[in-house]
Amino acid sequence: MADERHLPPxxxxxxxxxxxxxxxxxxxxxxxxxxxxxxxxxxxAHGLFRTHTHDxxxxxxxxxxxxxxxxxxxxxxxxxxMVTAALQAVVVVASGxxxxxxxxxxxxxxxLTAVPLAIAFSLGxxxxxxxxxxxxxxxxxxxxxxxxxLIAASAALAGYEAVVRLLDPQEVRAVxxxxxxxxxxxxxxxxxxRYRIRAGRQIGSAALVADGLHARADGFTSLAVxxxxxxxxxxxxxxxxxxxxxxxxxxxxxxxxxxxxxxxRLMDAVDPALVDAAxxxxxxxxxxxxxxxxxxxxxxxxxHGEVEILVDHGMxxxxxxxxxxxxxxxxxxxxxxxxxxxxxxxxxxxxGADHHATLSHHHxxxxxxx
Length: 370
Description:
By secondary structure, the chain is mainly alpha-helical.
């Protein structure tokens, strides 16, 4: 529909008809582009003004496999962290260590982040509908918001307990067990962190990577509990609540980083290096005279792109279409995690021509890379 603006009014209806069918079913060869059933006028509209999309069975299978793997990672990490937290909770009851309590609460919160992630991965497998035309990949971003709220809650609770214990110091018992529980917390979190980060990078899930970094931070806060236990063993009972406060500050730093990551996703931010890569790929395609706007966005753990290319104004419709298809194909294979691309072609020249004059009063000037 984005390119329908270039068609005369009497052609717009025919241009729209069968849009969804074209995207999924009317392609006959390996890369999904065929036009045997179109009229001459339909081929003209499709070839020069129409957007092009690249959907294939292997891309769909890869998406489903990514979601399935994400679900497995979430389930395993949830189990490991809950066992870790349960072992620590037993020592908290026996020792009364507020530092260990803060670490245990943080581990529980980290484990619970598996719930919104699991829901998001499950929703992400659902097919697009006429209401949710881009599918349900954005559920991962909503899960990220829930994760941020859980981290904030754990920080608030740990900080509250530390302040209470500072105002009313209590003896820490079973210092050796506290130290052992801290080491268990570190081991459990570091294992989960490596598992989540590795899988998240492989399937392209920023939410899973962020959650893995969160687990790694939790591991280091578990080591901080050792300081509190050591201080208590040396006769400094306030060391335990002081370390509890330090852990709270550490959680706040993790909260800041996680909130920034989710904010970027919600605002459709991408690494500028990905835009640079897309421009390089497009610029190398035979027939592309110039690269226009390049827009990328994450939907779940996959990238989607909308790009503009300029081709010679004297180029035939069929050739312009072939250039757009080739550009699309190169983009999908040349930009990491890019699952689909929409390519719009504009004529380059003749000098002084404004091919969008009719629409000039409808759009606020936007920044273009060139």
